[in-house]
Design goal:
heterodimer, A: about 200 residues, two-stranded antiparallel sheet, about 60% helix, disordered N terminus, B: about 1100 residues, mainly alpha, elongated, disordered C terminus
């Protein structure tokens, strides 16, 4: 638990974690928004000009075009989860730790993605207004990614817990040494405990 | 007058003949020109060339050849002669340069002199320049010379003044009367206008005159003043601007010159003499050179213009007398010098002399001949002219004067009068004979002049046909001659006969009105037709058709190069015949109806076929190939002509020639047959008539039936033709081609093994044809081809291919062997050998596999299913023959591209409404995704598993996964879902093969885990467009997840347009770019609220 926190502090030395006044909203280049204080360093002017011209050059993409590809991506990201299930759940011993980490992180990202989506009432309302993801039985229901959120987290927990419970297998750590499956799993469990229940 | 003139003409022509003959002899071309005389079958009487009897044509035709001894002695002298030629050339060059210098001098004296001194013709010394000005005074612009000599003292450091001094030094005034001396002085230049310049010039003159005639003047000053005074007198007396009563009298002049100097007195007599002479004959200070002569000439011309015959005759006689006198004088001079010179010339036999001489004389000779031929009807004159023509053409040909040759042949052809509706007379007949003779004699040298000859023969042939009453026999299309118009014409013709008898014949124009009144306006074309008819009669009487044929027959005796000229000219003529129709003059064409204009003649085309036939056997193949290239182009052009009958005729003759050609054996690895059949290919490609295509195919069928065993490289062309046929939408055409192919495959397969690649390409084209029945049959044949390839019956083809690269040869046996062992990958041998044999094996497999793969994208379900099935079968059955490298190429080049068809699948695909809806696939038979994608993906997996050893060695795993990935990460949902399923299947069956243990090595595991993760991440969407907004990550999203999401491409798909309302009410930092741990971003909003986490 503490390990994770320290780790994060190391990664983000300039960003205070809690209880700090947020002053600005920063739109990140990949689309997400960041709420932050004034501590964030400003980029050089030249770069900023370049950025702004890039912005203006971006073409507006109409919703009709976006919606079908968005739905395809949602379908795929849900459809591909069984594959993760297959390769992780009973066959985790086939992978070394870094490969497992890659797969688990992807699942985690999928989970956070779906979770952020589901929490974002504004976005979902907008989507609903545009008729995205119309549920045949409940037309008034907003679009959601509940299956994705749940399935991905379930998958992670199932995999991690079954690894934790597996006292016999050892995992290849990638650099020639081996780590027991349960010790690899325990770091993930503590991480998710933090994520799900908050520090402490 | 007429007899005199006639005799003179004859004499002149004889002279020309002698000139040309001696040129011929000097160019060592005389010996073999005896044929001329023989062909003319004239009586030859030996006669001395210096004494020719009047109008003895025969006599001059054949002069005594130079004695052998003389020609022997010539060798010794040859060096001298060549030297003389060099000197001549040099002199000519110098003259040209000086000519240029003079021109330059006239424009700018300084530059002209500079130019000449640069070339070394003068030195830049006063002496040299003065001499130049003096020597060429007649050619130089006198005003320019005057200006130059009168230059002020300072100019060019006084150089001009020095030149002036030297110039005057060159003159000798001793004993001359004063005014005569002035005249002499001024003969070389014109006095400039400026007084100072005149001053300087006259001063120098006076000094010189004084020095040479001391007794006339007491001092140079006196001479100077008198000179000035004389010039003024000249101006006074002869300037038209001065009124008569103001002109100076003799007394005034004497008075003026009294006491001009203190040194002495001038005598009155002398002054009076000067006055008289100036008064009677003004000093010529105006220019008399060629610059001023021009207007004078024009004046003469103007006099001639309205001249009556009488005056012209007088002028002519005067001219002639003048010429006679001049030549007499010249001959006297010549004879005084002795005959050494003449003999020298006659004993020459060096081409070097002949060239420059002929260069000088040919154009005037042509002028004379044309003039005489045009006007004269006298047979002796015409004969002489034609002999001269023959000689001249011979010289031009042999000495390679292409312009002269073209001009002469052109002129001669023109005088045949064959090219249009003009009347042909006796002399024209002679011209025709001469032209035919020339063609026979000079065939090897005529080059592009052949076109004139062949055009003439073409016309000749037309007239001969015409005479036989079958005007349209050699042309296609409906004749527009109705019997009515024929009758009218015959009446018309007879009336013209009457006219002729009554002496009114000759020009049509004069009698035109009469005809018009007779026949309510016979068209101009009809009038012309009458001429044609009469011409035709005359021609039939006079010209033996055998002569005509001989020209074409003789083509096989031409040299390899000249036959090319011959053929290309004949093609051009044939083209003309076809495009112009009857080939008459433009006058006729204007009046003909369009339908008539499209009646093409095929005389030259027929002749082309004959020529090809003559030459096919007699020429080496290489020469023949060059010739055929020309012919092929022509046949191909005609084969696609709009006129059906014509095109069919061309194809038919092509077929005849082809069968003849194919009956000759061809060794392997030559391309002659292929080149030969090329026109068929071009025709079937270009023509838009199904009938023509049908005909081409039937011709090919006949060829194959009659000489299939002889066909070697021809198969390539044949299959190319079938490929075109396969693409036709008319079933019958495609059927013919397919039937032939099928027959060949079942009955004569052994013949095709050398051109297996072409055969397969052809079959693939049949699969692609729009006739499904043929497609399916062709697929079956392709499967059989694969069997043949695999069982080694095509191995001779391998060796055949290897023939091109002899160093590969010994590998082929090895490769064959390794195939039999069934494991090419493990065959012993170096890697290089492996690759080499793969290349040769694969060259044969490639078109088959690629063709099948392409047809998997066919628009017809049955065809594409069958194609996929065939491909799958072939690969499963014979995949063990391929090495890892080959498998790599098969996967990347044949199998993966198959899914590209999904991108062009435009059918409606099912789309989920929500992520877990999972609608079933479309059942549209048109949809490639719905019908094929799953099978194709399954095939990848199946082949990957079946040939695991080779495929793993080829490291195809990343490529296979990438292919799936590409299908996953695109917008069509149904394809994505199929690909996800396929990827899952693939990883589970290849990676785990049903067990819990991963079957692949660590690198592969890395790859798989990375790619699978990526497939998931790439489909997480953070950005939903500006209408909706973007996904804001939750505050507690762990950094690792943020980083991963950061990379997901759908987050970057689009950025919202800036400038929303919330952005405007912000602080100064709004819009600035900041760097955050989660990549750079832009501040879009400033809030005062409190948040608990940095990342929202």
């Amino acid at each position: 638990m503490m390990f994770l926190l320290v780790n994060m502090l190391q990664i983000l030395p300039s960003v205070p974690l809690l209880g700090i006044e947020a002053r600005s909203v920063v739109r990140l280049s990949w689309g997400a928004k960041l709420y932050c204080t004034d501590h964030v360093p400003e980029l050089q002017t030249v770069y900023s000009e370049q950025m702004s011209t890039d912005h203006s050059a971006d073409d507006f993409v109409p919703w009709r075009q976006i919606s079908s590809s968005v739905m395809t991506s949602m379908v795929v990201s849900l459809d591909i989860l069984p594959l993760f299930q297959e390769v992780l759940l009973n066959r985790y011993s086939a992978w070394n730790t870094s490969q497992l980490t890659t797969l688990l992180l992807a699942l985690e990202a999928s989970h956070w993605h779906a979770r952020s989506f589901n929490e974002n009432a504004n976005l979902r309302r907008n989507l609903h207004r545009l008729g995205f993801m119309p549920f045949r039985d409940q037309p008034s229901r907003w679009p959601h990614l509940l299956e994705q959120e749940v399935q991905s987290l379930t998958l992670i927990l199932e995999a991690v817990l079954s690894m934790y419970a597996d006292q016999s297998s050892a995992l290849n750590s990638g650099n020639g040494q081996s780590v027991s499956a349960s010790s690899f799993a325990s770091s993930w469990i503590s991480r998710f405990a933090f994520v799900l229940f908050g520090p402490g | 007058m007429t007899t005199d003139e006639h005799n003179l003409r004859i004499k002149g022509l004889e002279g020309l003949v002698i000139v040309l003959r001696s040129l011929l002899r000097s160019a060592s071309l005389w010996g073999d020109s005896k044929e001329y005389a023989d062909s003319k079958s004239m009586n030859i009487s030996e006669s001395d060339e210096t004494s020719i009897a009047p109008s003895s044509v025969a006599g001059i035709l054949f002069p005594p050849s130079p004695a052998l001894g003389e020609s022997d002695s010539f060798d010794a002298q040859s060096a001298d002669h060549i030297n003389a030629v060099e000197i001549f050339d040099k002199k000519q060059k110098m003259q040209e340069e000086i000519e240029t210098g003079i021109l330059k001098f006239n424009l700018n004296s300084k530059k002209g002199l500079q130019y000449l001194s640069n070339l070394g013709h003068i030195e830049m010394t006063p002496e040299s320049v003065a001499l130049f000005l003096r020597t060429y005074q007649d050619r130089l612009d006198k005003a320019a010379v005057g200006e130059y000599l009168g230059r002020e003292r300072e100019y060019e450091n006084g150089f001009c003044l020095k030149v002036l001094h030297e110039y005057v030094e060159l003159m000798d005034f001793t004993g001359m009367a004063f005014d005569m001396a002035i005249r002499y002085f001024l003969s070389g230049f014109r006095l400039p206008g400026e007084a100072q310049k005149i001053d300087r010039l006259m001063e120098k003159f006076a000094e010189r005159y004084y020095l040479q005639n001391r007794d006339t003047f007491a001092s140079a000053d006196m001479a100077f003043i008198l000179a000035f005074s004389t010039i003024m007198l000249q101006t006074n007396l002869h300037n038209p601007a001065i009124r008569e009563d103001k002109r100076m009298t003799k007394e005034q002049f004497i008075k003026q010159n009294k006491g001009i100097s203190s040194d002495g007195e001038l005598s009155d007599e002398m002054l009076i003499e000067i006055y008289d002479r100036i008064a009677s004959q003004p000093i010529e200070i105006t220019q008399t050179d060629k610059f001023k002569q021009k207007p004078k000439k024009e004046e003469n011309f103007v006099v001639f213009q309205p001249s009556t015959d009488k005056r012209r005759k007088e002028a002519f006689n005067d001219e002639r007398k003048e010429m006679v006198r001049a030549s007499e004088a010249m001959f006297k001079q010549k004879s005084a010098r002795g005959s050494v010179y003449i003999r020298n010339v006659s004993s020459m036999s060096d081409e070097a002399y002949a060239r420059p001489m002929f260069d000088v004389v040919w154009a005037p000779i042509l002028g004379v001949l044309s003039q005489i031929l045009e006007t004269s009807d006298d047979s002796t004159t015409v004969d002489l002219c034609l002999i001269t023509f023959q000689y001249a053409i011979r010289l031009a040909c042999r000495l390679e004067f292409s312009t002269a040759r073209n001009t002469f042949v052109n002129a001669l052809a023109k005088f045949t009068n064959l090219d249009g509706g003009r009347e042909i007379q006796k002399k024209n007949i002679d011209c025709i004979r001469t032209l035919l003779d020339v063609a026979m004699q000079e065939g090897d040298f005529l080059e592009e002049s052949w076109i004139q000859v062949l055009q003439a023969t073409s016309q000749l042939a037309r007239l001969l046909m015409f005479a036989n009453g079958t005007r349209n026999e050699d042309s296609f299309g409906e004749s527009t001659d109705t019997s009515g118009s024929r009758r009218r014409i015959s009446t018309f013709a007879s009336s013209r006969q009457v006219d002729r008898q009554s002496g009114g014949g000759g020009l049509f124009g004069t009698n035109m009105e009469k005809f018009t009144s007779l026949f309510s306006g016979p068209s101009k074309a009809e009038v012309l037709r009458i001429v044609e008819e009469q011409n035709a009669e005359l021609i039939t009487k006079e010209i033996d058709p055998v002569l005509l044929d001989r020209i074409y027959m003789n083509s096989q005796n031409l040299s390899a190069d000249s036959v090319l000229h011959f053929v290309s000219c004949l093609c051009q003529v044939s083209m003309l015949e076809i495009s112009v129709g009857g080939g008459l003059s433009s006058a006729r064409n204007k009046s003909t109806t369009p339908s008539e204009a499209t009646n093409p003649r095929v005389f030259s085309l027929q002749k082309l076929v004959e020529v090809a036939d003559y030459n096919m056997g007699s020429r080496p193949r290489l020469a023949w190939a060059k010739m055929w290239a020309l012919l092929a182009q022509h046949f191909a052009y005609i084969g696609v002509h709009d006129n059906h009958a014509l095109a069919m005729c061309a194809i038919d003759s092509l077929k005849q020639l082809s069968i003849k050609f194919l009956q000759k054996d061809e060794l392997s690895n030559f391309n002659f047959q292929r080149v030969f059949l090329k026109p068929f290919e071009l025709i079937i490609c270009k023509t838009r008539f199904p009938e023509i295509k049908d005909l081409v195919l039937r011709c090919i069928d006949i060829m194959i039936r009659s000489c299939a065993p002889n066909i070697r490289s021809g198969w390539k062309s044949i299959f190319a033709i079938f490929e075109v046929a396969a693409a036709q939408d008319v079933l019958e055409i495609a059927n013919i081609a397919f039937d032939v192919t099928e027959r060949l495959m079942t009955q004569q397969f052994q013949l095709l093994i050398f051109d297996f690649v072409e055969l397969m390409n052809c079959l693939v084209s049949f699969v692609a044809s729009q006739h499904t029945g043929l497609s399916l049959k062709a697929l079956a044949h392709l499967a059989r081809c694969a069997d043949h390839l695999a069982d080694g019956s095509i191995s001779p083809a391998l060796e055949h291919v290897d023939h091109h690269h002899p160093h590969h040869h010994h590998h082929s046996h090895h490769s064959h062997h390794s195939h039999k062992t069934g494991d090419a990958a493990e065959a012993s041998g170096t890697k290089e050998v492996q690759i080499d044999q793969d290349a040769s094996v694969f060259r044969l497999w490639w078109p088959l596999l690629l063709g099948l793969a392409t047809r998997v994208g066919d628009s017809r379900l049955t065809v594409r299913l069958r194609a996929l099935e065939t491909l799958n079968q072939v690969l499963r059955n014979y995949g063990h023959l391929f090495s890892p490298q080959t498998w790599g190429v098969i996967f990347k080049g044949v199998l993966f591209p198959m899914v590209d068809s999904a991108k062009t699948d435009l059918t409606q695909q099912p789309q989920s409404n929500w992520p877990f809806e999972r609608p079933s696939l479309t059942n549209d038979r048109q949809s490639w995704i719905g019908t094929m994608a799953a099978a194709v993906f399954a095939m990848y997996l199946e082949l990957y598993q079946l040939f695991n050893a080779q495929v793993t060695a080829a490291r195809l795993l990343p490529d296979v996964i990438s292919t799936f990935e590409e299908c996953i990460c695109q917008e069509t949902e149904s394809l994505s879902r199929l690909a996800v399923k396929a990827l899952s299947n693939f990883i589970l069956s290849v990676g785990f093969a049903g067990s819990d243990k991963f079957q692949l090595d660590n690198d592969a595991a890395d790859l798989v885990s990375n790619r699978v993760s990526k497939s998931l991440l790439q489909n997480l969407c953070a950005d939903y467009g500006s209408d909706v907004g973007s996904l804001d990550l939750l505050v507690d999203t762990p950094t690792s997840a943020v980083e991963l999401l950061n990379e997901c491409p759908l987050g970057r798909r689009r950025r919202a347009k800036e400038g929303s309302s919330e952005g405007r009410m912000s602080s100064k930092r709004l819009g600035s770019t900041v760097e955050t741990p989660f990549s750079s971003g832009e501040i879009v909003e400033v809030r005062n609220s409190i948040c608990c986490f940095v990342v929202d």
